[in-house]
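Input chain follows. Return structure tokens only.
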Amino acid sequence: MYETIVTQGREKTHNGLAGIDSSKLKKLRSEHLKACFNLIDEMRHKLEFVARIKGVSFIDDAASRSPLSTWYALETVEGRVVWIANGVTSSNRASEYKRLRALAESKVERIICLGDKALYQTVFGDIVKDIIQVDTMAEAVTKAFYSSEENTKVLFSPSAENGISYEEQGETFKHEVNEL
């Protein structure tokens, strides 16, 4: 639990404080307060800590299906990040992704795209050293792991729809991490 809270930071803290505030308002008993915190742990695929392998942390944020959600994830995760994203084929969405530039410049070492990398290359090519296109989650996780240094966070935050449910993509990400 400690690892999860440290890695995921603000989101867990804010949700926990909201649970405490609402329990005070309702004057709930301690067993109800425990139930509130148990609900927080059930938020799957939203900044969910998966594993730490040889100093590299893996975070599942598969529920983030928009640039704004990914902005929040990048803002929340501390340290250097390897970002695994869904490829984006529509170049008219570039303005939405430009909002991520400042965070990408300060945090993102590498972007690994599941599918077309053209939009990411256009928006981030001058500030992110590597933008890689892959075909499978297994390839994405492997490249992310072997190209990361200790204390790097590998963040799977798709930032776009790709026709696969976020639950399925998140479970696939976690499976591939556990296969390393």
